[in-house]
Every structure is written in C-alpha cells, then in structure tokens.
Amino acid sequence: MSAPSRPLRSHQRSLFELVAALARGEASGIADILAAVTPGGGKSLLPVIAASKLIGAGLVDRVVWVVPRDSLRLQAEEAFADPAWRAAFGHALAVRAADNAPDPSRGLSGYVTTYQAVAAAPALHLSEMRRHRTLLVVDEVHHLPALADGEADGAANEAASWSRALLPLFREARLRLLLSGTLERADGRRILWLPYRTVEGAPVPDIEAPGWAVIGYSRAEALAEKAVLPVNFGALDGEASWLEGGRTAGQARVGPHRLSGPGPSATTRPALFTALRTGFARDLLREAFHATRRLRAERRRRLGLGPAQAVRGLGKLLVVAPDQASAQSYHAMLQAWMPEEQAQRDVRIATSAEADAHAALAAFRLTPEPAVLVTVAMAYEGLDAPEVAVVAALTHIRSRPWLEQMIARATRVDPHAGDYADQHALVFHPDDPLFARFRARIETEQATATRPRKRPVGAASPEPTPLARETDEGIVPLESNALGLRYAMLRPGPAVAMARLGPQADAAEPAPVPPSRVERALRARVAAMVTAQAVEDEAELRLPRGGPLPHRYNAVLKRLFNNKSRAAMTAEELEAALAWLERNRLQDHLHLLEGDARYAWSARRRWAGAERRPG
C-alpha cells in the first residue's frame, strides 16, 4: 500500500509511516502503539490505517476494536466502510458490530465490540484472539484502570471488571493499538497496560519504554492543521438558593450565592447543583437554543434555502444534562418552544432509560433532522457528529477529561458547513470557578489568550416553583436565575504554526453502509420470505392460522444451511439463503425434520393436509 493520495493529519501520517516500517520488518521490536490524540482530532481513522497495512502485509489476520459504549460500534464500522478512505488506502476491509454470539467476525476482517460485552463473555473473545493473529484496538483506554496487587481476582467496580476481562486479550494480541484523548483518570489511578515512570514522586506514562511507540496530537497541533475548530465559550453567571439539611428538621435557607463567586468554596457545588435544576438551567438552555436557531437561519440564508428545507450542514445543538430527570425536563422545555410538528421532528432525547436512544443518536449523527439532542452521558464521548455546532453544558461534572470530551463534540469540522474560517464551536456553560479553571488550562495548552467580549443580558426571572428534589448532598434546590453572559473566543496563539488544510469529506460521497446494517436488512428479508411461504402454505394446507409452521420452516432453512441460524449467518450466507428462497419452497424439504420429535407434529399435519387437498 503506497501513501494515500488523500491528505492525512500529522498523527495519521506518523502512524502510517510506523506501520509501513513494521510491514517491512524494520520495527520488529514494536508491539504496542499508543496514540494520544486530542478529542475531536481524528482517532477513528487510526485503526483503519493500521489494519489495512498490517493485514495486507500478513502480520496480523484480524482486527478487534473494543469501544467503551455501544453507540460507538456503528461509528467504528463506518470508519472501515468510508468510501473515500477505502479509495485512499486501496483497502477492502470490513468489520462488523458484534454481540457475544459465536463467530463475531462472520467472514469479515474483524469485529467491533464493547468493554461491557468482553466482560460478559471473556472466554469467547479470548478464544477468538487465540485462533487468529490479532491487532487489538482499545478505544479510550483511559477507562481501564491498572489492577492493583490482588485486584485481578476481586474488585467489584465496573471499570476494574473491564480491566480484568481485557487483560488476557492484551496478552494474547499480536499487536496493540491503544487510543485515548487523555492520559489521566479522574480517580488518579494508572491506566491498564501503559508503562509508567516516576517523576518528582508522581507516576507518568513512560513514552520511551522498550517495545512502545507513542504518537501524540495536541490541541495546538490540531488547531494548526485545522483538524478541530476554535471554541467560543459563552459563560453564563447566575445566583442560586437552596435549603440545607434536606427534608429534616432545622432546614436553613442558603443564598442567593453567585456561581462565579470566589472559590472553589463550600457553596460552589451546591449552587451549581441548584442552578442546573431550576431557572438558571432554563435560561442557559434558551441562550443555546436561540444561538442555534440564529446559526441555522444564517446558513439557510447563505444557501438560499427556505425555512422548511432539510439539508446537512446547518448546525445542531447538543444538550448535556446532569441526570435523566433533568434531561427529560430540558427535552420538554425545548419542545415547548417550537410548534408541535417541528418539536416532534427536531428534538430527540438519548438516555439509557429511552428505548430508542440508539436510533435517536444515529438519526442525530447521520440525517439533517433532528437538530437537537438531549443526553446525559451517552453522547458526550466519541460521538462523531460534525454538525454539532452548539453545546449546552448543563452538567455538574468538572473533571478535565470529561469536559474535554464534551466540548470536543462541537469542535469537529463539518464538511457540509462551508469554509473552515466560517465555523467555530459555541459552548454555553455555567460561569463557576471550576469550569473557569478548566478553561484556563485549555488556553495555556493551546498557547492562546482569551479575548473577552461582554454582552449584557437582562436578568431572567427566578423559577417560581421550587423543585421538590432532595440530594445526597442534603440540599433541596429552591431557585436560581441568570445574571449575565460573556463570550471568550479561544484561537491559535502566536506559538501555533500556519495551518495546513487536511482531508475534507466530499459532500457528494455516498454514506457508508456498515456491515451490521447490511446484515440486519438481509435477515429481515429472509424472515419476511420465510413467513410469506408459511402463510401461503397454511392457507393451502388448511392449517390453523398462527400455528407453528413458520418455526418449522425456519428449522428447515437452518438444516439446509449447515445448521446455521439467521443470527449466525454471514452476509454472504444470508444472500445465498435469499437466492435459494426465491427459487425453492420450504414445504418440499420438511422431510429434513423427520425423526426429530420437536417437529413431528408439523410433519404429520403436512401429510394430513396433502391428503385433504383436491386431487
């Protein structure tokens, strides 16, 4: 595989050159590759680069890509199916989003699974790893804590269970590619498998450890190459009041306290907790909503579109809520600000409590509508939705990795939205000291200076009705209101080199069709054809409608195809089953069930029906 004609970012070029050296036998001592890429910088292409070269060179047979959440499996499939990168690298590899059924690859070049799935069936995935020389890709590896002495057999927390299940896969893999947007954990623990050294009494990843290759891509580099967008922070200040002592005797009213007051202090988190559940949340959400509406109207005007035309690239709003109850409340608020028909079309919610959460995420990512998504944590990490232009950060979490991932949902360049210079991320957030400290660290890291531009905002009316909600912190939120909004644009500073244009997706390119979606469609067609034959034959044989004939016909089809159920068939086998069903009748093969007591009733009824038919 020669160097791709489509331009790569610097970290993607570095990985391409490294795996090319591995393929030539020039870097045989490397078994582990760590890619520390700023969120939004383009990690999803790295497994495609590595797998296409290493499988092509015969160094590995398959790729297994493990992601932290189910919603990311489809994106991993799409990365391999992307027609532009297929042409750029000249590869024909495909992976499928697998569950814990046998043969997860189904004849493809590998599969994508989740931490949770591996923890639920570790033996299945370890067996696959032992049967094939495997490139193991672990996405967002910082989710996996290193196991302390004795913890490999015991710890009960979920993250430790993931580490225990994945550790044998690390050991069995031929090569490992570890991806992360941050190399620190909120709990301060080391990350599984990474080598460490001690610097001034603190452990830090050892980037010069034997057998390791480390590829870094900082926010400054990503901005210089125009791989991510600059961020415009809209900091909304406010006041909050609450009751301390919960619902016990001796409650005391606290506040009003300013969110931006000196701190962090003992009142910062209770004030923030209250603000996110009362009038302040409504005010911040309204600012984000109207900013998104203005952006979409301006882009429609620029394109000469009418208000009802649905096209890509107009900009979308992502709302990150502190909990599911608040998410439902925000969802209702947003819908109330729109006409009913538009509200049903444009606003969706994706939380673990919603049955259609994954469908909502997919629609938000891949279609012009919906334009607004409310979530808690499902969409904050790894969500590849370049049309997100505005984020309403209504979350109480203040850990740096979490916040970086959240703002990165809006920093992806949207290929449908025009020139890079006309795009930027807009993040609305409470103006509390903890968020301000996080923002200051980002400014320092990307060598930027904030340029504040104050815009006065009238004080919003306080929430009239207190929310009857008590928390583990022993407070009951009463009311809050917004006081003022200020903006600060973060742009590359003088230390950042001149930007180079990177790959832009062609708006005319067809959307990739992931293998799992192809399989689902084929399985549905096979099921429909089996059911249709059963219905027709029930009428002909005068069998009672709703009887077990479809079940028997499915069993016949399974016997005809090497005792494989539809769920276990590859796409090619499903296509073969469809072709067979178009030419043959399952009733002519019921003899395959003879001798099996489970299907004796069906066979008897078939022959009885045949005798009753007119000659």
TrEMBL record:
It comes from the Bacteria. Residues 445-474 are annotated as: Disordered. Residues 23-201 form the Helicase ATP-binding domain. One of its GO terms (molecular function) is DNA binding. Residues 557-584 form a coiled coil. Keywords: Coiled coil, Endonuclease, Hydrolase, Nuclease. One of its GO terms (cellular component) is cytosol. InterPro entries: Helicase/UvrB_N (IPR006935), Helicase_ATP-bd (IPR014001), Helicase_Restrict-Modif_Enz (IPR050742), P-loop_NTPase (IPR027417). Pfam families: ResIII (PF04851). This is Restriction endonuclease subunit R.
